[in-house]
Amino acid sequence: MKRTIIAALFIAGFIGSTLAQSVLFKGNISDKFGNPVDNVVVASIHDENSTTISTEKGDFSLSIPANRRVDILFRRVSYRDTLISVKLHKGADTLFHIVMETSGQMLSAVSVTESYNDSYTRINPQLSYKMPSPTGGVEALIKSMPGTSSTNELSSQYNVRGGNYDENLIFVNDIQIYRPFLIRSAQQEGLSFVNLDLTQNVKFSAGGFEAKYGDKMSSVLDVEYKKPTGYGGSITASFLGASAHAEGNVNNKFTYLVGIRYKTNSYVLKSMETKGTYKPNFFDTQMLLTWKLAPKWSLDLLGNFSRNNYKYIPEDRETNFGTFANSQRLTIYFDGQEVDQYENYLGGLTLSFNPNKRDLYRLIVSSYYAKESETYDLQSQYWLSDIEANMGSSGSDIAEVTDVRGYGTFLEHARNRLTSVVTAIDLRGQHTFPSNRIDWGVKAQNEIINDQIKEWALTDSSGYTLPCIQTHPGIAVSSDDPSRLLLFGSYLVSNNQLNTWRMTGFVQSNWTIDDDGEFVLNSGLRAHYWTFNNEFTVSPRFILSYTPQWKHQWVFRLKAGSYYQPAFYREMRRPDGSINEHIKSQHSYQVALSGDYSFKMWNRPFKLSAEAYYKYLTNLISYSVDNVQIIYSGENDAKGYATGLDVKLSGEFIRGAESWISFSLMKTAEDLLHDFYYDADGNYVEPGYIPRPTDQRFSINIFFQDHVPFYTPLRVHLNFVFASGLPYGAPNTERYQQTLRMPWYRRVDVGFSYMFLEQSRDRMKHKSAFIRSIKNAGLYLEVFNILGINNVSSYIWITDINNTQTAVPNYLTPRLINLKLAIEW
Fold first, then answer.
1. 764: helix, coil or strand?
2. Residues 394-432: tens digit of each pLDDT
3. E-strand spans in 486-603?
4. Which residues are registered as beta bridge partners of 504?
5. What distances in angstroms separate CA 116 from CA 50, 208, 220, 567, 596, one per listed residue?
6. Cis before residue 467, ω within 30 degrees of 0?
7. Is 518 helix (H, G, I), strand (E, B) or coil?
8. Please, which residues have CB within 8 angstroms of residue 385's CB and are 6 or more apart in sequence?
């Protein structure tokens, strides 16, 4: 029945498409002083693909339907959004003059909006400069959106509505981006792919996205890089790294966009509990070159090179944990080092052919190459002790050791190397009509993986290696007795090579059902075939939007569809290193109902958004999480569900600066197939549904901006996160036993900024040509974790002399200060 309804709506999306005439809406944009305003995004609210950008002289032209009222949005960084409604007749030759008001704020006054009539959140990437975060980047903004969660501020990864990191899609200029394979901890991650200095537009969906996007079950992040209209650049420097970029336009026939970034988080890592030598160095460079080959032909080249080096020589660690009545201390002394290296290369070539205003064809050829190595030899000698307060002492000596509960040694060794090459060729088409737009695409992708794993771990606890085969004192043990064998806690050696092909395709329609634009139906179909297991899947999806003609602006949406996630290499590898040759795609049925209410309060714009959703999950591949490493079972061994409610209120609580609060409730659980145990009475018990590793029941995120009264250049930015803890359990235990809960995640980051030069003030009147060329310049002071709360990222498990396992928390970053300078010209 579900598939029948979805298929019927999909077919309906292609019916009723009527051809109507269009007219050219054109004009000029200036500020209140009469200066032309360039780089203004001019877009139709009802058609996300009807968009243009104003020229250096402020001129623009946009094709819109004739004889029909259309809402046009004008948007530019540091200017207030302008929305007008026009109705032009065929043959009209009116030139419109638009005057935009400055917002009195650098880097976007209205930063995040959903004023488009679709289900995506638009994010202004420049707002990342203001949000205080150790990682920065557009991912810091996404983590504050409803439905997303992250309990590790050192990582750019995020979970969406009960999914894990590998269930999120990321595209840059329609080219898919991949995350590293061998990353174990957040401090190894380095730079995320998306370069904010080069970014023009960002779209994000937390679920229920269109058929044109790839085969994942959770979310999609769609990033579009700039197409420069003139010359410019920027430079940013802080305690955590630096970045710079340059852009230019040569006679509207060639444009270039080049950026470089450098990051080192040694300043952050040195403040953590494990002391030692940290030498993390992360570097990348990206470029986007565009050639206008002919009036109807253009060619884009996207290139990226990144190198992340992580060298770590630990020395010692001391962690106090427990309650006041039962306090304990873990002391560790280290020998050895860890050296990791991750290199990535990406090249993408896009040939676009625009034969007329209605049709667009694009051929995208891309190749991604990754070379990763992970090598370490570490010896950790530990002591687990009971402690109590010595009130006669002060400082670090206030805690006194009263008893040693256990001691031992960890030996860890790894020589892991992986190379991957992903090459794709993608042909896409788009056909635009006045009330309908049809998109289609076909893609062939080749994946070559070469994975060499060699790692082991040995645990010596109180003089005995674990696991240990017990013998009886006084009884002779033969030389070939199993108790004489040296048993490793874990031992993994494998060598895997894969060379497979995937074929994908989609077709979708975006149909405005009535002339008033009250109903818009996006329906599509997506197909996938993989040569590795000869699996063929088909996914119908639809999004129905209803905009009633009420006094207040409301938009309601119903989203439903089928979402398959074919396994990539990480999901199909078992814990013992072998490959599951019969792996199947994970699958989810999704339905969501949402509503957006736009209103004015205190004569300023606000928006209230809410979405309720349910996902039924089948063919799941179960997994556990350690820090940011996902360890898959490599089997389709579970079914599950995720359900929840996301709410966000955004608006100008302070005039000219948008803030928001988001609140999420969510529950996700899974039922492992064929798992059971016998209770103390010998009864057969099936555990049933248990929380998934990403089961975060609630989260609250607040981003708030304010400025000093009567002096707007001095501002404050606050990022607040409060979320429930995630499930966890002891290693080498059954999944149904891993239902303990980490402490709640609580964090407050505060930033202060002083905009000593910005384009919204009188820089154009300055005598210096150099000063006049600078658009914005600001100094930022950031205080991370201002309350000094010890949040937990994971646990290390210690066995004491009573054979009792104790979970010792690995704490995240303490309070830190960062200083940043940003200049844009």
1. helix
2. 555 667 888 888 888 889 999 999 999 999 999 999 998
3. 490-512, 519-530, 535-546, 553-565, 586-601
4. 443, 528
5. 11, 16, 17, 33, 11
6. yes
7. coil
8. 328, 329, 330, 331, 401, 402, 403, 404, 405
Question: Is the distance from CB of 66 to CB of 23 less than 8 angstroms?
Answer: yes
**Could you read off the pLDDT of 319-358 as tens digits, one per residue?**
988 887 788 889 999 999 999 999 999 999 999 999 988 8
DSSP track, 152-177: -TT----EETT--GGGEEEEETTEE-
Between strands 95-99 and 22-30, the pairing is parallel
Edge-to-edge strand list for the sheet holding 47-53: 47-53, 41-44, 70-75, 82-86
State the Cα angle at 623 between 617 and 627, rounded to 5°.
125
Burial group, residue 817, by CB count within 10 angstroms (0-12, 13-18, 19+): exposed
Q: Based on C-alpha coordinates, what's the Rg of the chain?
A: 28
Look up the pTM and report it.
0.82
Q: Which of 691, 692, 579, 689 is nearest to 633 (CA)?
A: 579
H helices of 293-361, where?
A: none
Q: In the 8-state DSSP scheme, what is residue 215?
A: S
Number of H helices, E strands in the chain: 5, 45
Which residue in the block uniquely carries the two structure tokens 């980047």? 137
Q: Are 523 and 508 in contact (CB under 8 A)?
A: yes
* Beta-sheet pairing, 219-225 with 168-172: parallel
Find residue 223's DSSP bridge partners.
172, 202
DSSP string computed for 469-506: ----TTS---TT-GGGS---SEEEEEEEEEEEEEEEEE
3-state secondary structure of 10: helix
Q: What's the rounded Cα separation, in Å, for the pair 780 and 756?
A: 11
Q: How many residues does the chain have?
A: 825
